[in-house]
Design a protein that fits this description.
620 residues; alpha+beta; 15-stranded antiparallel β-sheet; 32% helix
Length: 620
């Protein structure tokens, strides 16, 4: 078992309230409970020695010398059961081929529960395979000790306020290893065994050990759930498999009881190996979530979009954020606005990348673009006939009235830099979007609104961007006023309708980005050296921006270039079709994983490419 495997060497499973990461070697090394943003139960991804893990691996009986001669003892492969969140890790040895099938049952996902299960089925399809199991939980990010109770019912790990039960089915006998457990078992072709991990509040009812037949039904039920869900997808384009995988990934990272998507499944994974850009992304960003549900809605998942709209209107109804603004940039999945940041100094970090941060100190930042994304999300729902109602409109209109007085303020911008507030062009663009969509919605739905005021503010923003956000020197829109630095966030300009994709100013901006921010179709957010962001070190190319670049190329008429860039970008997906936040200089995935931003942009790019390719004769 490797310490700190590559970020991309993982698959994701989940039950729509929390999730777990399983490495391509069969090691579950990231799991939080009872929610995505709860403290970890297993976190070896961030500290191999002290974070905790749950490993099921294959071991071989051949000698070390023979193994070296054969090029390795065990070869592993990992895949998803098609169109599901069921993950299969395969172990190929000279003695046989075995598999570990991992999934989390989805029971009443819209009802909040403290009880979450991971089911791990061991099976052999050829010959015989010897499996080894180690379960070493480390509660509260590895800070809390636990006691082990081992009896005929299985193992119980008692931590402060939390308990993990490990129950076996078949020929697995658990043995104590300090306060942890281990086991080995040899299975032959056709034989199966299983372990079920149940994590719940301390003092909760002890789970009943499932029978083999019940586990088979659990497997069938979770497979049906995902097949039924993905069956609602309306996408029938050229990239069905990767779009479906992106949709399932976005669904896995959505907290079903509230409809709030999180930005990523993990925390603390670095944008640069050994660097300090290590953030906690297990929260709901208004921006990311609004764009994610737009992507989901565009491929037919209207229920998810409408659920998030309700969550967003609840935040507006709360009467303002603690920072004094109508909204703050991120919340916990239940709408709690408090998520203070702390450095977990006891964790070694992925390959020494410290500090490992829990919580997010950017929560209090002013980022005016979120109002554009928020109003856009609400207007998309209303446009489909599912209006927010009069009360919902009142809250939205109050935000737009506030924005008329506040759009012309410096802010921290979309990238949450910690280098001070500036007049970011993208923030102004999205303020324009908020007012533009508000005006359209008020007119279409005959809602009361101060339309002359909103229109005047919208037009003033456009004029300001066209004069101060445009650089005559660069012949391009720039990151913020008074600079010549480019910024890939502006790839959103044609997507949101601020400018047409074939406008001369936009084509000139795209050409400037090609020359400065694009490297072999991969796109950097901006140049930190030219625009210091208050942080040490560098970062990789930003996969969101790379897919937005594909979208912009396609819409601007450069369809061949767009398709080539898209096809190249798909080669950076991991072995099961997942993307992190960034891509490093040698193609490695960096940052938190998987990243919602990347997968939503992939869907948008695929849709745009399909549309443009369909316009061309004799094209597939």
């Amino acid at each position: 078992m490797r310490a700190y495997p590559p970020i991309a060497e993982h698959g994701l499973i989940g039950d729509l309230q929390t999730c777990a990461m399983v490495s391509s070697e069969g090691v579950l090394n990231w799991f939080c409970s009872p929610r995505f943003d709860s403290p970890s139960v297993f976190a070896a991804l961030l500290d191999h020695e002290h974070g905790g893990y749950f490993a099921i691996t294959a071991i071989t009986a051949i000698t070390a010398d023979a193994a070296e001669a054969e090029g390795g003892e065990v070869v592993t492969r990992q895949l998803y059961l098609a169109d599901t969140a069921v993950l299969i890790t395969r172990f190929l040895t000279r003695e046989g081929v075995g598999e570990v099938v991992d999934f989390m049952p989805v029971h009443a996902p819209h009802t909040v529960t403290d009880r979450h299960q991971v089911v791990r089925v061991l099976r052999v399809v050829r010959g015989s395979v010897r499996f080894a199991l180690e379960c070493r939980p480390r509660f509260d990010y590895g800070r809390a000790r636990h006691d082990l109770v081992l009896d005929a019912a299985g193992a119980r790990f008692d931590g402060p306020g939390i308990t993990a039960h490990l129950q076996t089915v078949g020929s697995l006998t658990l043995e104590a290893d300090g306060s942890d457990v281990r086991a080995t078992a040899t299975l032959s072709a056709g034989e199966r065994a299983a372990v079920v991990l149940t994590v719940c509040d301390a003092g909760s009812e002890v789970p009943r050990a499932p029978s083999p037949d019940e586990l088979t039904e659990e497997f069938s039920a979770v497979r049906r759930f995902w097949h039924d869900w993905i069956g609602r997808c309306s996408y029938r384009g050229r990239w069905q498999q990767i779009v479906n995988r992106s949709a399932i990934t976005l669904k896995l990272m959505t907290y079903a009881p509230t409809g709030a998507p999180i930005a990523a499944a993990t925390m603390g994974l670095p944008e640069e190996e050994g660097g300090e850009r290590n953030w906690d992304y297990r929260y709901t960003w208004v921006r990311d979530a609004s764009l994610a549900v737009r992507a989901m809605r565009d491929i037919g998942f209207t229920e998810e979009a409408d659920a998030f709209r309700g969550w967003l209107l609840d935040r507006l109804q709360d009467g303002g954020a603690p920072n004094g603004e109508p909204l703050q940039i991120m919340y916990r999945v239940d709408g709690d606005p408090y998520l203070s940041e702390e450095a977990l100094g006891h964790l070694a970090g992925w390959r020494g990348s410290v500090p490992v941060r829990a919580g997010n100190g950017a929560v209090g930042q002013l980022q005016l673009d979120i109002y554009g994304e928020a109003v856009y999300a609400v207007s998309q729902a209303a446009g489909s006939g599912e209006a927010a109602g009069y009360d919902g409109w009142r809250y939205s209109a109050a935000v737009l009235d506030w924005l008329c007085d506040n759009w012309d303020r410096p802010d921290e911008g979309i990238w949450e830099t910690r280098g001070g507030q500036k007049d970011f062009t993208y923030s102004r663009v999205m303020c324009w979007v908020a007012l533009d969509r508000g005006i359209r919605q008020a007119t279409a739905l005959a809602r009361p609104a101060d339309l002359p005021r909103w229109t005047a503010a919208r037009d003033a923003i456009l004029e300001q961007i066209m004069t101060r956000g445009w650089s005559e020197e660069r012949q391009a829109f720039v990151q913020h006023y008074g600079t010549t630095v480019l910024d890939a966030s502006l790839l959103m300009m044609p997507m949101v309708g601020f400018i047409t994709p074939k406008d001369p100013r936009w084509l000139s901006t795209l050409e400037a980005m090609d020359a400065e921010l694009v490297s072999d179709s991969l796109v950097y957010r901006y140049d930190p050296a030219a625009s210091p962001d208050g942080l040490l070190g560098g970062e990789g190319t930003f996969s969101l921006c790379s897919f937005l670049y594909v979208y912009a190329l396609a819409r601007s008429g450069k369809v061949e270039q767009a398709r080539y860039a898209f096809d190249k970008m798909l080669t950076y997906a991991n072995h099961v079709g997942l993307f992190a936040e960034e891509i490093g200089p040698t193609g490695e995935q960096l940052g938190n994983f998987p990243q919602a931003f990347t997968h939503l942009a992939l869907i948008a790019a695929a849709l745009a490419l399909d549309t443009e390719l369909d316009k061309q004769p004799h094209r597939r």
